[in-house]
Structures are given as C-alpha cells and as structure tokens.
Specification:
The chain contains eleven helices and eight strands. The chain has helices at residues 11-28, 36-50, 56-73, 79-95, 99-112, 138-141, 143-152, 180-190, 220-229, 242-245, 259-266; strands at residues 118-124, 129-133, 162-168, 202-204, 207-208, 214-215, 234-238, 252-256. The chain starts with 10 loop residues before the first helix and ends in a 13-residue tail after the last helix.
Length: 279
C-alpha cells in the first residue's frame, strides 16, 4: 500500500516563487526605450543567483561580468574593458556546465555585437506620401510626425512629395526613436535644403522634439562602443548624452541640442567643438 507524501514549500521557496511571478509581470509590462546595459546587468545578476555555484564559469565568471558591465554604466569603462567583457563572456559560453551560465553570457555577447543602420531617403515627385520601410517598430514609424514638425519648426520647408525612407539592413527590426535625427538630415539633403559633405564616416543618434530640439536617448553608451568597435569614429549625439560620451576615448563626438545646430555644424556654418574626453 502506497503512502501519499505531501510536502509544503518552505517560506523561502514561497518568497522566491512570488518573486518569479513579479519578475514575469515586470517583464511583460516593460516600456520601450529601456537601457540595454541596465537590462543585461539585471539579467546577469538574476542568472548568477539562480546558478548552483558548483562550476567556476558560473560562480566566478558571471560575477566578474556583472562588475565589468557596472563600469560601463558608471562611465569608467573603455575599449579595453569591452575586450575583457567579450573574452570573459566567450569563456563562460564555452565552459559553463549549465544552460543558465551559457544563456547569460550569450546575452552579453549579443549586446556587444551591434550593427549600423543606414538611413536612405528618396525624394521624388508624385502623390504626397511619407513611407518608412525596413521593419520599423511603432516608435520608429511615429518618427514621421516628429521629423515633419521638427523640420518646419526649425525654419525649413517640408514639401509634399513622394518620400521613402529605407532603414537598412531591411531584414532586422528597428526600435526606438534614436533614428529621428538621421532621418531628418537625410530629408534635408534629399530635398536640397542643405548641402552636406560626405557623411559616410558619421553616426547620428537622437530623438527629435516637435520644436526641433534633440532629446536624450536611452542606451547610447553601448551603441557608441559597438560603433567604435565596428570602425566608426565620428558621432553626432544629443546634448543630454554628453556625459556618457566623454568616456569613449577612441571617438570624436559632437553634442547638439537642436536639429538646426546639427545642420549648421555639418554645413560648416557654425563650428562645434568635440566633447572633451575624461581620463
């Protein structure tokens, strides 16, 4: 005759189960625009707490990754730190005994391997339209209205025409409002309202306000680090992100507060000093 054995969960396990449910709800309710570095650090710390601690890659490696990513957040990291983060993460991926450690380290590697988005603007006669293609999310699609208002309120003309903005590569989803500045500059060049020198070596990041201002964007530091790693050296960013950019020693960064300021700088009308580096 078998006996039914009922075990009640301990108070500690009950607390942990409730925490897991809270974490699930917070993830489901996450707003757009969160800093990916912050999220990576939180995920790492959660995985570190979940691991059994028996293998060195999980016990030591995840803890070291958390400390290194914290230096990225506090602005003391450099390209050398990035190289150590990548090396440590690859070591954990290749040597961890459990999926928890491998998944956590793989997430870090995914965050390091960014890719440039090329903004192409075609301006032609035809039925008035403004199309954004290249898998834009809702925030990117809404940039049409921000760009339109920002251009008009910056003293330029938004002429009705057939406008197509392509965000390449087309097979990768684009998220957030950080492409606003690049789209607006591309429109001004395509509509011949501004003549820029070749800008292939520049990266433009910034959300536009309706009055033509350039707003701070979240997660700009990993974008800069990833772009520098890919070989880019010149950046135009929002004035609100100036403090973060001053730690990227390998980059030539220019901070602007408005679309007009960016146009005047790029056309040579008004010189702009690069962000001063901090040691």
């Amino acid at each position: 005759m078998s006996r039914l054995d009922i075990k009640n969960p301990s108070r500690a396990q009950t607390v942990v189960d409730n925490l897991y449910r809270d974490v699930e709800r917070r993830i489901a309710a996450s707003p757009p625009g969160l800093c990916p570095v912050d999220m990576s650090l939180s995920f790492l710390q959660l995985c570190h707490a979940q691991s059994c601690g028996k293998c060195v890659p999980c016990r030591i490696g995840l803890g070291q990754l958390s400390k290194l990513i914290a230096t990225v957040l506090d602005g003391t990291a450099d390209m050398g730190t990035l190289a150590i983060i990548e090396k440590t993460a690859r070591t954990v991926v290749n040597t961890a005994d459990c999926a928890i450690g491998r998944d956590a380290a793989r997430l870090v590697l995914d965050g390091l391997e960014g890719f440039p988005i090329h903004v192409e603007v075609d301006y032609a006669k035809g039925l008035p339209s403004f199309e954004l293609v290249g898998l834009p999310d809702t925030a990117v699609k809404e940039s049409k209205e921000r760009v339109r208002a920002a251009i008009v309120n910056s003293g330029k003309r938004f002429v009705s025409a057939r406008i197509v903005v392509n965000l390449a590569p087309a097979d990768v989803k684009k998220e957030g409002a950080s492409l606003d500045l690049a789209v607006a500059l591309g429109y001004l060049a395509a509509s011949e309202q501004a003549v820029f020198p070749p800008l292939d070596d520049f990266i433009f990041l910034g959300e536009l306000s309706l009055d033509g201002g350039v707003r701070k964007v979240q997660g700009i530091l990993p974008m800069l680090i990833s772009a520098v790693k890919a070989g880019y050296r010149k950046f135009v960013i929002p004035q609100g992100n100036r403090a973060e950019a001053c730690y990227i020693r390998e980059a030539e960064v220019y901070a602007v507060s408005s679309l007009s300021e960016a146009v005047e700088f790029l056309t040579g009308v008004s010189p702009l000093a690069a962000v001063e580096k901090r040691s």
